[in-house]
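The pair is set out directly below:
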Amino acid sequence: NDGYAFGSATWESADGLFYVGPGFQTNQAGGSNVEAEFVVGYQPEAFGYRFDFNVAYKNRLDAEAGYDQDAWEITGNASRSIGPASARLQVQYSPDAAGSTDSFTWVEGRLGWDFTPQLNGTVAVGRREQNGAPDYTGWNAGVTYALTEAVELDLRYYDTDAHTFGEQYEDALVAKVAYAF
């Protein structure tokens, strides 16, 4: 029930194929309250599909001594839109995730629909297989409304089937305001 902040700055090549940038997000893990990241990516288009391949280095700043505070993540996305419908397949792999998780693979499928030029709805289902932590299936469904070209409002429901040491991860209804400039 705590607030959450995320920010990033991205440089993109003139042709839009390559990008790099730092980012941060608030978290509460291993004594850290902030996770910093640096991402390098390549996003070509072919055969009507848009691809996005990236590598991210993440570090949970000021983590407690002995806590595994850094991680590498490799992500690939393939997406396509036909009229108002859209779909995306994402595969993400980390050879050494932060915290107690040694490695993980996340596979997610997402479907979307543009109701109007400003209103979009999506639903996604994914599976995370990991070493050193429980496997789980997660899903989310929500709507995004473009208030202006720079401001988006998003309302989304998240849930998983995860159970850890007898505790259930709680589902969440999340409201987000995103500003891009």
The radius of gyration is 17 Å.
